[in-house]
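Let us begin with a simple case.
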Amino acid sequence: MEGITMQHTRIGLAIAPLLALVACTYYGYPAPGAPASYERSFYAAADAMRDQGVVITAQEANTGTVAGTAGSDIVTATVRQQGDGSVRVEFNAANPRDTGLLDRISRSYDRRMGR
């Protein structure tokens, strides 16, 4: 019986790294300079908001919207696939107290997109 338990332990140790790979999150970032895709742009927009301290409260890839808060500011990102295949990304905040926040998010987005 002890031999079977040791064998199961070895198998478990061999499989553990593979299970860790399965649990990793992929954010859709191909090589810098690659053409913008909807998915890549969407995740870059959400992560750019996080980079600048925005706490994400809603993130819906199927509608292309990301919403969050930075202090008392409500910040949104809208990602839309255009008819010509390009992707349009907009960041908005209604009456932000931090007037430089959208600019910093935009710069962070550009960095994530390899620009």
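The second case is a distinct protein. As before, the sequence precedes its structure tokens.
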Amino acid sequence: MGPAPTPAYEAAVSSARESFAALALRAPVRLAKRTSNLFRNRPGTGGPGLDLSACQGVFDVDLGAGLARVGGLTTYERAVDELLPHGVMPLVVPQLRTITVGGAVVGLGIESTSFRSGLPHESVVEVDVLTGTGEVVTATPDGEHADLFRSLPNSYGTLGYTLGLVVELERTSRWVVVEHHRFGDLDELVATIGEVMAHRAHGGREVDFLDGVVFSADEAYLTLGRWSGTTEGLVPGDYTGPEPYYRSLQHRRRDVLTAEDYLWRWDTDWFWCSRAFGAQHPLVRRVWPRRLLRSDVYWRIMRLEQQRGWYAALQRRRGRPPQERVVQDVEIPLGRTGDFLRWFLREVPIEPVWLCPVRLRADAPAPDGGPPWPLYPMRIGEDYVNLGFWSAVDIPPDGRPGDTNRAIEATVTELGGHKGLYSEAFYDEPTFRELYGGEHLDAVKRRYDPDGRFPTLYDKAVRAR
């Protein structure tokens, strides 16, 4: 369906097969990977992991067909670096540089083009998967392995590892012009999202990018962006300087960024989470090297703190209560987004909240009339808003760790939404099965991982095994 495999790509696939064959027979398989964008434990194997390091890079580009063959372990940073010179990019480029193309498929990804282009896995036309038997199969929407193709999104490596993918591309321009619109009413905010999603335009201008930030019930912003061949007389923004990007929303009505700077506008300060490391303090910002204003740098600092516990020990000495980490992304139907935001802002002391509207593509495969992607059953024809919130809350004396996350899970389900699984989850197993694939997942698991070389989705997402 895409560019023919190149010799370099075939060699990468062979390397992956050899690495799998070298692992202990029937032993559990884990990926040997130094970086991660997960916010839950990643247990080790007790031995060498699966080495897929050869599966990186853009192996081929077919500009006429608008397709590229990309290694599964290719970071979006590398994919963008290799594709932008051709004047193209993947239809959806998740907001953090070190998210991998394969990771965005099996773990879900999203960004400000998702209101028109869906989720990253929807622009995949074929994918080579290393299964639990050591076989490499090519999965497509309507081929022999269509069941695997539909089940990869939200599977998190429990069905196999993506070695290479053929992905759709879109043409780019040099600049992205953005407009920040302020709202003092959540219902008006939601209504405007619906209008832009319906018409892909606002105020007579085409909209190519759409996301937003909620600071409080009476201060929220929608950012509408569009490709442009010029700066339109604006001075290009640079948010590796004194001001983080998200603060510019509160006082700039229009802005322009290079295509690359726009794609990584959130990565520079890990949205706004860099403030936890002091990186937004004016004095610290002045001496912090710009090249180290990156999400993976903050992630490594966070992991080091989790291992050493220095900050937690300092907080205990200060008499501060223990905290519960609340790091989640949820999809809420557009019509219930205002309800969720009002509940969240009232019950959970975390701000800001990121908004990213999303609509599944109308051509998503649904041969049985059910949800096209069974492990994350959003519905075709319904608009959703992804809401992201990433911080921690105090645990009250009569509370227990996980209470806030459980309340969020219950509210999301009540409102007909879904929660991503890149972070901690607290569902009981029957509820989890009902929400994330159930018997369908069981059947696909039996076919492609009959010996249980990979963990189950519940073990990985909830039990952190």
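The chain is about 30% helix and 20% strand. Residues 103 and 261 are 22 Å apart (CA to CA).
Keep these points in mind for the review questions at the end of the chapter.
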